[in-house]
Amino acid sequence: MAEFTSPAAPAGAPRRTVMERVFLGPYGLRAGWRLVIYLFLASVCTAVPSAAAAQTRWEGSQFVQLCCALCGASVAGWIMLRFVDRRSPRALGFALDGSAARDFAGGTAIGGGILAFAVLLLAVAGTARWVAEPGTVPEYVAALLSALVFFTVAAAVEEVIMRGYPLQVLVQGMGAWPALVATSAAFAWLHRNNPGVTPLALANIFLAGLMLGVAYLRTRSLWFATAVHMGWNWTMQSLLDFPVSGLSLYDIPFYDARETGADWWTGGGFGPEAGVAATVALLAGTVWLARTPQLRPDARMTALRPLVDDRIGERWP
Fold this sequence. Notes:
By secondary structure, this protein is mainly alpha-helical. It has a domain at about 100-310. It has 11 helices and 4 strands. Strand 1 and strand 2 form a beta hairpin. The longest helix has about 40 residues, at about 135-175. The chain is globular. The two termini are about 25 Å apart.
């Protein structure tokens, strides 16, 4: 739980006790301990609205459970930032300012575009096609909008848990790349029991975690990271009608996607995320996000002093 580096003690400074060395680092309470406290708070803050929802007719609703998790994880992050780190709760990354809508729109387009590139590789290789199905325009619009809301909340939950306070505190304590690797490994681990999961699927989900972590660190905006995540999932399931991480949550009218060819390339029943086409798209998308000069933190966000700013510069990497 110790940080990788710590500043040298000034000459003549009193020796720290064992307890101080175990619990205190250059930024106060060590990153590992703050992460443990955050996870405990997130569990408690999620359990309270979940218990309330259990007394209503929405008990068992997956969407309600996601909303409870989003509320709990966000509140826990705000509490840690305000009372432990002495920062504004808005430094978590969901600040409501003029940049939020821009970050969300841009992130949605980028996430959808990266996924579309993976599917384009499948189509060009002749391993993906679409066949006609019955449907009406109102059914199609309703399916797209319903999926948009669901995937936005689902992406926000995973982003605030993975790229919210945990990534911030780990970057502050470990540095950017070790923190990205740790949170991306945890992100892949959370998907280990998805239907039809394969080693390549988990490797691609790890790469997706890196991509989303880079998206946050380049902008300091969870609006942007959430939108990249949502744009990927929504485009895959709603616009192109492929499974998302082994799950087919919506039946889209008018057309149905069909994959042919080796599963290692197409992803098979898990969806494109389990194929090499997605590997290529994820690597290309991550490099582009890391290197493009078009992405930079908004001045209003850096003024809030996110924890990552204590360790990395604005022009990272």
